[in-house]
Specification:
The protein is of the alpha/beta class. Helix content is 38%, strand content 21%. Helix 8 (238-260) packs antiparallel against helix 9 (266-289).
Length: 293
């Protein structure tokens, strides 16, 4: 048996139908690169594990409790045999040459620590979250308070151009296992949201570049795991949706304390922390209190 070059890790939680479509698309193009596929299941109740065992016996399946995105992906670490790791969302469809082109790019550019392809939404537009700048105070203020997203989403650079970015999205995140091992994979202190940006920050600290590479693309349904897509909203309970939305603000605080604290005057650090907690209160009122009526 040929040793896989690439290990594809897909984290699943109650997305059986989407996961089946995703795995079918992966299998269709699996000959492009020697690979293995690992599905880490977060205690799904929709029959996902049985579906995998029945229809995709070649997939490695590992099951565990639903402890969030980071822990769920990291759970697959002991099973990995490949030199490269691709974190792939179950609400995606892989297209021709995605594996071949992105793997080749990573191999040919030793200074690149992680690469992503273009993510296209069902309506044909690009998923802007695929390329972002780090949420430093100025960038975050412009985006969240002033509504200025041009800098944050690299809107000044055509989405058809390959270029260096600060952060890529966890929906398609390709890196070397040796790099992930150095940074400790995903920080399990994040439950949902922010963990991909944090991982990018740690890779960047090692001196590697992160690249947006649009010569290859996948389709990304997006929002299913957060309960944002009407058709699949039943997959996520109201309590889970609230927990996910609140986790997003908690991630902001964790990222700042972990990576940016001490890079500014101490009074400014506390000012930013104060602002994040005000934002957290506002989100809590909107999500927990107002949605209860």
């Amino acid at each position: 048996m040929i040793k896989p070059l690439l290990s594809v890790i897909i984290l699943n939680y109650n997305t059986k139908e989407l996961l089946e479509d995703c795995l079918n698309s992966v299998e269709l193009h699996s000959k492009e690169v020697p690979m293995e596929v690992i599905v880490s299941d977060n205690a799904s109740t929709d029959g996902s594990p049985d579906m995998i065992k029945k229809k995709f016996p070649w997939v490695k399946l590992i099951e565990g409790p639903n402890e969030g995105f980071s822990k769920g992906n990291n759970r697959a670490r002991p099973l990995v045999k490949g030199e490269m790791i691709l974190f792939l969302n179950p609400d995606t469809l892989v297209h021709e040459n995605v594996f071949a082109l992105t793997v080749r790019y990573l191999k040919e550019h030793p200074k690149v620590g992680a690469v992503t392809c273009k993510l296209v939404l069902p309506d044909g537009s690009m998923d802007k979250d695929v390329r972002r700048r780090f949420p430093v105070p100025r960038i975050s203020f412009n985006r969240l308070i002033l509504g200025k997203t041009r800098e944050y989403y690299y809107e000044d650079i055509p989405d058809t151009s390959t270029h260096e970015v600060e952060a890529i999205q966890g929906a398609f995140f390709l890196s070397w296992k040796k790099i992930l091992d150095k940074v400790g994979w995903f920080d399990e202190g994040y439950f949902f949201d922010g963990e991909d940006v944090d991982l990018c920050y740690q890779i960047h600290k090692l001196g590697y570049k992160l690249i947006y590479y649009p010569d290859a693309y996948i389709t990304h349904l997006k929002g299913v795991t957060k309960g944002k897509v009407a058709k699949w909203k039943f997959k996520v309970t109201p309590i889970q949706r609230k927990k996910i939305r609140l986790a997003g603000v908690a991630s902001m605080e964790r990222f700042f304390k972990k990576n940016l604290w001490g890079k500014y005057p101490v009074w400014f650090d506390y000012f930013v922390l104060f602002g994040i907690n005000i934002f957290k209160i506002i989100r809590y009122v909107r999500v927990v209190l107002l949605s209860s009526y």
